[in-house]
Amino acid sequence: MAVAPDRKTAIYEGSRIPKPIPTALVVPQERLDTGDIMQINFGPNHPSTHGVLRLIVDLDGEEVVGIEAVIGYLHTGFEKSMEQKTWWKGVTYSPRIDYVGYQSNELVYVLAVEKLLGMEVPEKATWMRMLLAELNRIHSHLVFLGTSALELGAISMFWYCFRERDLILDLFEMVTGQRMHTRYFQIGGLAEDIPEGFYDECRTFIEWMPKALDDYLALLDRNEIWLERTQGIGRLSADDAIALSQSGPNLRASGVDWDLRRDQPYLAYDQVDFRVPVYGNGDVYDRYRVRMDEMRESTRIVDQCLRRLERMKGRPWITDDRKVVLPPREELHTSMESLIHHFKLVTEGFRVPEGEVYVTIESPRGEQGCYIVSEGGPKPWRIHFRAPSFAALEATAACANGSLVADLIAIVGSLDAVMGDVDR
Amino acid sequence: MSEWRNAPGYVSEREAFGELTVTIEREHVRAACEFARDELGFNLLSDIVATDYLGWGRPGVSGYIGTASGRDINFPSTQGLQTLPELKPKRFTLSYHLLAMRRDPARVRLQTWLDDGESVDSVVPVWPGADFYEREQFDMMGIAFDGHPYLKRLLMDDDWEGHPLRKDYPIGGEPVRFSEAE
What parts of chain A have a pLDDT lower than 70? Predict the structure, then answer.
């Protein structure tokens, strides 16, 4: 049933010679000396900063003339911590980095280790990973939509979005036992088999979700206040977006037709049919529209994953490589070999061949990368995450240049930077 | 044979795990990045990452129990590797992960080697988005970037001492500010 994803518009190939684009706006000294400039602090604990982001903003009246982002308040040293842990313990760390799109982080780490190991993953695990990653994308976009609408005064959106978000969290709880930071992806496959009844519950949700999306559109898309506050605000051109290493929805809102799921397929994205929404204005409104459309496409992907998975009952969910994967629990009582493997895996961990890899996936926020260097031992030598939020934050200055201070809240919200992801 | 042979400061290239790594001389990083962007169409800078290879292939690093190469220095039987890893020419690598967004997308890792105290040219004039990446690597690894417009710590405090992701930066090295004795 392989369907080639359609490619209507050309991928953007511009941005060869970028003009200087600021990542921090600096006010010249002469202008500061006039005494018209007021410097104010946004955050670190401001409701609009989605965590702990501090923006030092220079205002001339209501106009933003200078901006600098101060980050690091959530820096927890994940990369250093993961160097001290065995490979399979690292799976627990990675979802906590981007705490809204947690399954993407988990996925990219697991895929990177599997690439170093040269490991094949059972089909069922691949499709289930895709299903959960797409549910997580909907979840992440719902949090984005609810909170950024809340900041612009649309309080009811927050409740509606979090109602559907809770349905997704219930699904996660059903499969993994956890609502957030699920740690369900395992190196080699999945941690557990998919529980009975999950497919039905999931199908109920994806039948419900398009109706909920229609509700959101009805609430926002003809709402005069919402349109006034978002359209034409915080523009980012395609050239600037590429020069600033933007990715994901922010890039597609600027008119660049690029999605890693379609253009560099991983998992089984080349076997599903979906559309990549692209908008051209690069303003706050387009960034919101891209995410709205993506949620609809994600429900379609989840539907296709369900169709596949329903036919895979009783198939293995994790590979049978005993040098990497824990043996089944019941074998520990009967098989000496299994007991030895279990002991070695738990105490020492498995070894991963020497080398370095860089794996990227399309997370809800854009290009999520994982760079791993292995020495050949049971622990990683170096792990680095390419955080899409980190890049998104760099675009704040370019978007906010000359805007009003009230729009700054809409702009920061629309870039959808999760501070855990920024600071790592 | 390869299109990379003409790159400024080209040293070598290798392919492993399906990924192309091109090694370039430290002095020519910016020129090589410009070449990649303008001649070969690698228009997006995905990431800049530095790696510290201090103690690579040797058992035990920086006196910390549970070293990178072995389990625990108190239990030496699990220490050491089955094969010795390939030796490294210098202490740090700096890797630039580039992406060519086109119909046949391509990725490449431009890599350069440097020792402690050596610096590289900033690529902010090539990709403005390199700003935060370079500041992060300066903060975490202590690699200086010449020509960066605003090179100061990004994630750690401005008065922080040391570079946390270096291998000789101890775990638990942070002083405890409020102890029982105070």
Answer: 1-22, 45-51
Please check whether residue B7 lies inside any domain of the structure: yes
Report the CATH number that the domain containing residue B19 is assigned in CATH.
3.30.460.80
Domains of chain A: 79-423 (1.10.645.10)
CA-to-CA separations, A269 to A184, A298, A303, B19, in angstroms, rounded: 20, 11, 13, 20
Q: Which residues contact B169 (CB under 8 A, 6 or more apart)?
A: A80, B62, B162, B163
Nearest C-alpha in B relative to A241:
B129
Contact between chains at A16 and B37 (C-beta distance less than 8 A): yes
Interface test with B, best of A244, A352, A359 (most B CBs within 10 A): A244
pLDDT recorded at residue B61: 40
Domain count, chain B: 1
d(CA A94, CA A23): 27
pTM of the model: 0.88
Helix (H, G, I), strand (E, B) or coil at B73: coil
CA distance A387 to A392: 9
Are A386 and B47 a contacting pair at CB < 8 A?
yes
Residue B44 lies in a domain: yes
Q: Give the structural domain span for B41.
A: 3-53+88-146
pLDDT at B1 over 80: no
Query: SS3 sequence, A329-346?
Result: HHHHHCCHHHHHHHHHHH
Give A70's strand partners: A54
Residue A398: exposure state from Cβ atoms within 10 A (0-12, 13-18, ≥19): buried
Q: Which residue of B has its CA nearest to A22?
A: B128
What is the pLDDT at residue B96? 94
Residue B72: inside a domain, yes or no? no
* pLDDT (tens digit per residue) in A228-255: 888 888 888 888 888 888 989 999 998 8
Tell me whether the omega of the peptide bond preceding residue A44 falls within 30 degrees of 0, making it cis.
yes
Task: Quote the pLDDT of residue B173.
Answer: 54
What are residue A294's phi and psi, to 5 degrees?
Answer: -65, -35
Cβ contacts of A394 on chain B, cutoff 8 Å: 128-129, 131-132
Cβ-defined contact of B128 to A23 (cutoff 8 Å)? yes
Q: Please tell me which residue of chain B has the smallest CA distance to A372.
A: B51
B89-134: pLDDT as tens digits: 888 999 999 998 888 888 999 999 998 888 999 998 888 888 899 9
Asked whether residue B30 is assigned to any structural domain, the reply reads yes
